[in-house]
Amino acid sequence: MSDMKVDFDKMNGLVPAIVQDATSGKVLMQGYMNEEALAKTEQTGQVTFFSRSKNRLWTKGETSGNFMELVSMAVDCDGDSILVKAHPRGPVCHTGSDTCFDEVNSSKTGFIDQLRAIIKDRKNNPSDKSYTASLFAKGINKVAQKVGEEAVEIVIEAKDDNKELFLGEAADLMYHYLVLLEAKGYELDEVMEVLMQRHKK
Ligand SMILES: [Zn+2]
Question: What spacing in Å lies between the alpha carbon of 60 and ligand 1's midpoint?
Fold first, then answer.
């Protein structure tokens, strides 16, 4: 991260920093960083800006406790804007809203993309300790069979009334389904494309 080429001179020492929820993908807020704010964000792992109204460094959450834990930073194509991905520890806006754009930020479905990246990595860089890697090693028949077994298990739990067990089976099915897609070499986007086509008017 520290080798990011940010052009602070072009912008009189300050560049806009756009903060995105690392899980949901929602844009949370926008602030400004100078060189010190960028360095402090990297050192502490808590997103820190230069506040123009306070005229000093300002770590988001320093008074509210709603820190934003840094996941990654990237600079844009011409070096004058920073994209920060973070995990917010609470509502981001001083108004109490989830985001400064008054949007609800409750969706965790963006985690599916992170999970898919992990599954892909287990396929390409297998390790002995990884259950996912062991599935790929056993081949497509075993992976497909696991999806079938998990499907049967969720059917059984659907007929019962135990939330924890049902959600557990729902998670097992989704995970093995994603592994099957990866084993077949297809992207989830290709499935989404089929669904979107069906709903085209
Ligand atoms: Zn705000």
Answer: 11
Q: Rounded to the nearest whole angstrom, what is the distance from the C-alpha of residue 26 to the centroid of ligand 1?
A: 14
Query: Which SS3 state, helix, strand or coil, does residue 45 take?
Result: coil
Token pair 């840094």 in the structure block, residue: 70
Ligand 1: distance of its center to the CA of 56 in Å?
18
pLDDT for 2: 57
From 29, 32, 106, select the one nearest 68 (Cα to Cα). 29
Distance 140 CA to ligand 1 centre (A): 49
CA distance 21 to 189: 21
* Whole-number pLDDT of residue 38: 97
CA distance linking residue 165 with residue 158, whole number of Å: 9
* Res. 171: pLDDT tops 70: yes
